[in-house]
Design goal:
Distance between the termini: 56 Å
Strand order of the largest sheet: 4-13-5-12-11-3-8-7
Strand content: 5-15%
Radius of gyration: 24 Å
Shape: globular
Length: 493
């Protein structure tokens, strides 16, 4: 006998309210703190009635994203003599190859994506490409990893940690997940818990990340007389001692319902909660030291991260793909058929356009090494788009998750920190990301709103972007440079 419709609705409600981390085909996860809060507050079981909660993921791709022409290291230096040497990240100003650096305030819907950004074409309609940001000085070089996610003076933690700590009414398995993969320079991590050098730990292993995000994974079957709800029910009964009579009455009512669900689970199968199926991705520990498996490791990590967001286990995360100046090999297939160069022995040297036997091969290795990094981002976006939102099941998880992408460098060859790469994707419903009205994406040059000026022109300090992202999450960043920038979020700036 299968579970009744009313019981299924209760299970869906528990998941939407954050009480039940997930219901999978073979395992169940229960979050004690979330369930207790749901029981005491008497929250609505229908997530759609209370609206989706904003979520944010910061993605850092190592060694820049090709924002400069191969022939010049100065933005606005004009188009290169060889069209193949054009910059490969910033969308074009309506005409391929046209340099838009000096077009401060340029605002274009449906921009022409460049060679590298075109890898994200499936997400164009949900994307806002931003130009005109910088780190505190023009040439932070590889030291940019210390500042790319926080204030220029390093007086505070990184924005991911700040948001995770300050979100109101936020209970989650992890308040700010930090994950990714670094195979070289393991201390070049971008997330900080405080001022100075207060580096946060990064989880590199997808299986350990899964275990940390789903600590209540039961792993127990119905055999042996134990049920997966038993530990949480025991915890909740202990909580009754410190409650007021009214709170205790609410809790008792919900406990009765949960115990009925437990009975139902023991007599029939359960349909998985839409969008929330926390299963371990394919992964072997032996892959961790195999450069040929780096893409697989990162894809497994992004799968776990997306599942955690879909199950309410977190709302804030940083996904770091590689470390600055990373010298290990990466593998790719530039033509999709195994022809041409299929790897570079040194990702950092490829970013410097210093691998290959001639100009054409150097260009290919530079371009394809950047494509490899961006495709790790695309895998994460694919995972987010596949899931439904935990609070609004009729929406995609990506509708309520803002993905902010940048690097610790603008471009790897000149190692510059000006004209930084940046794109924001998703979050159109909970954050109000302004992607325009054309359903074809948007590009904006915000240099006209800059707070610092040098021989190249005006720039917006990146910490102002982070202050706005925090505001879109309902949090005050505490950063000193926090003047809003118009045109990025609807209702902010």
């Amino acid at each position: 006998m299968s579970i009744s419709v009313s019981r299924r609705r209760l299970l869906l409600g528990l998941a939407a309210a954050g009480g039940l981390g997930a219901l999978g085909a073979s395992a169940y996860y229960l979050n004690r703190s979330s369930l207790a809060r749901w029981a005491v507050d008497g929250r609505e079981l229908n997530g759609a009635a209370q609206g989706g909660k904003p979520k944010v993921v910061f993605v850092i791709l190592a060694d820049g994203m090709g924002t400069m022409n191969m022939a010049t290291f100065t933005p606005g230096g004009g188009p290169p003599a060889n069209p193949a040497d054009r910059q490969i990240w910033h969308p074009w100003d309506g005409e391929e190859g046209k340099d838009s650096f000096h077009s401060l305030g340029l605002d274009v819907e449906g921009p022409l994506l460049a060679m590298l950004s075109s890898e994200l074409e499936p997400y164009r309609s949900r994307s806002l490409y931003i130009r005109g940001t910088s780190l505190p000085t023009n040439y932070e070089a590889h030291n940019g990893w210390t500042k790319c996610l926080r204030d220029g003076g390093m007086q505070h933690g990184s924005i991911d940690h700040i948001i995770g700590q300050k979100l109101a009414g936020y209970t989650a398995t992890q308040k700010a997940v930090f994950c990714g993969h670094i195979s070289h320079n393991p201390n070049f991590r971008v997330s900080y818990s405080g001022a100075g050098a207060a580096l946060r730990d990064m989880e590199r292993n997808p299986h350990r990340l899964f275990a940390s995000l789903f600590p209540d994974q039961a792993g127990r079957s119905r055999s042996g007389g134990k049920h997966v709800f038993d530990p949480a029910l025991a915890d909740l009964r202990e909580l009754r001692e410190g409650m007021s009579p009214r709170e205790r009455q609410k809790l008792e009512s919900h406990l009765d319902a949960i115990e009925q669900v437990q009975s139902d689970l023991e007599t029939g199968p359960v349909e998985p909660v839409p969008g929330c199926d926390p299963t371990l991705p394919e992964f072997e520990d032996s892959w961790m030291d195999d450069n040929r498996r780096r893409a697989d490791i990162l894809d497994a990590t992004s799968s776990v991260l997306a599942t955690a967001l879909a199950c309410g286990a977190t709302r804030v995360a940083t996904f770091q793909v590689g470390a600055s100046s990373e010298n290990n090999a990466i593998y790719f297939d530039p033509y999709g058929d195994g022809t041409g160069p299929t790897s570079t022995d040194n990702a950092h040297e490829a970013a410097h356009q210093n691998r290959g036997s001639g100009p054409d091969e150097k260009r290919i290795l530079w371009q394809q090494s950047r494509v490899w990094y961006v495709n790790r981002l695309k895998a994460l976006l694919d995972d987010l788009a596949r899931h439904t939102d935990p609070d609004v099941p009729e929406d995609s998880l990506l509708d309520h998750t803002l993905v902010v992408v940048t690097s610790e460098l603008s471009d790897g060859l000149p190692e510059t920190s000006m004209d930084m790469p940046m794109v924001m994707i998703g979050g159109t419903k909970s954050h109000g990301l302004n992607v325009g009205n054309s359903n074809n994406g948007r590009f904006v040059h915000i240099g006209d709103q800059g707070d610092r000026t040098d021989y190249i022109g005006k720039h917006v300090s990146i910490e102002r972007i982070w202050a706005m992202v925090a505001q879109s999450m309902g949090v005050d960043s505490g950063y000193s440079l926090n003047t809003p920038i118009s045109g990025i979020f609807k209702g902010i700036g």
